Amino acid sequence: MSIDTERVITGRAEDVHATLFGTDSGGRLLLDHPNVPIDTRAAITSATESMRVSGGTAPGGLEVSTEAISVAAGVLSRVNERAGDVLLGTTATDVEVAAWSMTGHPLLVAAAASSALTKAALAAAQARMTLTQLHLASAQQHYEMVEASVGSLFGPGILTMPGWNLTGSSMSGLRTTLDEFTDAVQRADISTPAEFATRVRVTSFGVVVAGGGPEGTNAVIRGVGLDDVLDSSLRTPLPSVVLRHSRAHRDLGGQPGDEFTLGQYARVWADGLLTGVGETEAHVGPEEAAVQAELGASWPVVRAAVNGLSGRSGFEWLTAYSTGRSLSPAERLLYPLVRGHAVRLKAKETMTGITPRNASDHGMAGLAKRPLPAGVEFDGAVPVTVAGTAGALKDAKNIVEDRENSTVMVQKSTDSSGRAAFSVVLTGTEVWHDGQGVHDIAGIVEGMKVQPHDSLDELPPAQRAVLEALKDAGIRPGDSVVLTGHSLGGIDAAGLASNRAFQERYSVDALTTFGAPVGGFEFSQDTSVMAVEHSDDMVPPLDGVGNPDGENRSTVRVDTQYNGQYSTVGSLSGVGAHDMYTYTLGAQGISNSGHAAVTKHEQALRAAIPAGTDANTETYIYEATEEHIVHNPEDR
């Protein structure tokens, strides 16, 4: 972003809550979207059953060990045998006590009754232990059968092929596959090899278990996916001895000996390329234009040769205008792929406050045009559950009709005593080029470059729009703030939550992100942080850094299985899994789980946000737009 960029704020935001959430805006309709299944209940149930939690109060995902099952069964068998010995050994004593009780003496009668009750209780306990032994044996049999089956599908011959980085997420994905396959086989009640052969089949989308999904659906076991391989690859550390003198190493703030991952370097390289390609063939000097006209079809070859040999920026179309440097050979090779996604210099940033009077001019849509998937419980305009925060994000995603959504939303909730708290909702990427709004590829580049020590005036436009909306909503120093974001919105929310100036000014009580690469952000121990990631989503791994676990920081990975989930366009590439509609279903499953880490995070939300009939809610929105420095009319 140029330091000469003009910044304009046109008016302050006003409360538009009645416009968006009032009864006049219409009631909720059922959601009609290709990524939302007809049987949403099955998708929500599968999210609850498949979720893996790390951090918070959770030790991590459950791993099944047949050896542990065998040891437990052996211990239980020995205890059961001892119980049988006790029962047998007390038989003679019981008979003698029963005979003496026939004398009618009260103490002897009571002793006989007590002995009979004790023996009955011990016999019942022995029966329960015997039943548990049978269950353990059945579980071991099921697990070993599934393990053998999966081993044939994902055996060493495949997993050791060149190019596989079977560490980290790939190994975790394999364990998850095994657990999901086990659950599916047990749910389908497959107990014989013949049933297994007829009800389990391998398809191009994964292993399908007939009747193994929730609510009678078929389970689709994905296996190790592209997201797992991508995550493992991007987390690979690169030796500092090779790259310590590189510009990327310096940009990452590295000191001699510091190592960074492939993903961290790739982020810097991508940033340099996207901000370095802005000129076009139409922006050349008169001399170059004359040469181009003279050479005709031979011009591209000559141009590439001259630039390659000279290493100079003689031909401006191949020059990074932000730094004046000439692009490297690798960057030139990638130029055709990234030209349409280039980040351009800004001439002007404008933030427009939305009011009840101008809401319709900015495409604000009421409830009737912002439906939620069936089965999703929306717990109020300012939500206090994981499911509610996802619903609020989906609401904000559709808050603008028929145009690029470049808005940020802040909601103020005040209780009867006058205590106020503020909820920030930030949506994801709208367009994958440098558009006129702020939820674009330029926003990603800017959001990933923020540092905790940045001043509030240096933050990306979306985050500064939040600051304006908070100010208009009447926030005071020390007031509670909770932040929610999806994808790029999650990056922006994390950037605000980790900013030291923001933390010093306000009480950042909770942060919830969906499908966002936030592993590299650091947060206060006083902030409850939960990152939700879909098991097929390829966006969260892109920062090349794993999410740290902590007492108040957790990561929840879910799957939302349902019939036809892999027939949706984009499913295999992870696009469908990244959709906010998919995350809305998964979040409902998370809230339904009752998991300790989820409960703890939702308690933090409830403690921060006044809720109930006595709470009053106000909604403030800014629309942030940009004008670019344009060298070619085609780039507008």
Written description of the protein model:
This protein has 636 residues and is of the alpha/beta class. Helix content is 43%, strand content 14%. The strands form three sheets. The protein has a ten-stranded mixed beta sheet with strand order 1-8-15-9-10-11-12-13-14-2, with helices on both faces. Strands 3-4-5 form a three-stranded antiparallel beta sheet. A hairpin with a 2-residue loop joins strand 3 and strand 4. Helix 5 packs across helix 7, helix 7 packs antiparallel against helix 9 and helix 17 packs parallel to helix 19. It starts with 5 loop residues before the first strand and ends in an 8-residue tail after the last strand. The C terminus is likely disordered.
The portion of residues assigned to helices is 40-55%
* Sequence stretches where pLDDT stays below 50 over 5 or more residues: 59-64, 150-167, 279-284, 310-324, 568-574, 632-636
Strand order of the largest sheet: 1-8-15-9-10-11-12-13-14-2
State which percent range the strand residues make up: 5-15%
Number of helices: 23
Overall geometry: globular
The radius of gyration over CA amounts to: 31 Å
Structural class: alpha/beta
Would you report the number of β strands? 15
User: What number is the mean pLDDT?
Assistant: 78
Q: Largest beta sheet, briefly?
A: 10 strands, mixed
Report the span from N to C terminus. 17 Å
